[in-house]
Each structure stands twice: as structure tokens, then as C-alpha cells.
Amino acid sequence: MKDNNFVNLGKRIREKRLSRNLTQEALAEKADVGTTHISHIETGCTKLSLTTFISIANALDVSADELLCDCINQASNVYETEISLLLKNCSTKEICFIHDLVKNTLISLHNLLLKNCSTKEICFIHDLVKNTLISLHNRNLK
Questions:
Q1: Which of 15, 34, 52, 112 is surrounded by the fewest CB atoms within 10 Å?
Q2: What is the rounded average pLDDT of the residues 66-90?
Q3: SS3 of the chain
């Protein structure tokens, strides 16, 4: 059975690698590990060592918390930063749409959970905003 922390870590590594237009081969070379090992890490099929984790973080030029934010409780600042970066190139129309989406999502979450946003909720909102932005940009709604 796969460990969810390693699955989430693998997904974040893959996401960061793709956002930097790196192939698994290129990342493996930069991190001084095998391509198959990168593949297994990205799919959560293997547990990487601290040394490998640091090599990959350095190769991707990211902080450890950027890769671990799905696994730790105090990661909301990572998501807040990523949301800000996602909004940076949005049109006013897109920002207005996303504002309403986030506001209504938060109202729903608070009504359901009767508490302030947890890290998991911020992660959910981050993913929702990110996927919405991708959809909007793909549809050329600017």
C-alpha cells in the first residue's frame, strides 16, 4: 500500500518539474539520481531518502515546504503564495470570477465545518483556483 505522504510529495515534485519544463531525465540528471527513481518517486511507489529529497528540491530550485505542504500542518503560507502567483497574470474579469468562487467556497466550507480554514481547506481552495485558472486560460476568457 502506498503512503499518502509520499504520493502527495511525488505529485508536488512532478508538478514543480513540469512547471519548469523539465523531463524526468533532466531532473534525474540535475539531482544526480536515476530516471526510474524519479518516476517511482513521482508516483509514490518509493520512499525517497532525505539526501535524495534535498537533491530534488535543489534541482527544482524550490524550498522543502513547497514540496511538503500537502503533508504538514503549517503550510498555508505556501498555498497563499501560490494563489498570489496564479492570480498575477489574470485579467480583471478572471480575478472577479475567482474572488466570487473563493468567497462562496469559503462560505460553504464554513457552513459545513463551522470553523476557520485549515491547511487542508486552503489546499482545496488552492487546487480549485489553480484548476479554474487553467480552464479560464485554456478558454481564452481574458
A1: 112
A2: 80
A3: CCCHHHHHHHHHHHHHHHHCCCCHHHHHHHHCCCHHHHHHHHCCCCCCCHHHHHHHHHHHCCCHHHHHCCCCCCCHHHHHHHHHHHHCCCCHHHHHHHHHHHHHHHHHHHHHHCCCCCHHHHHHHHHHHHHHHHHHHHCCCC
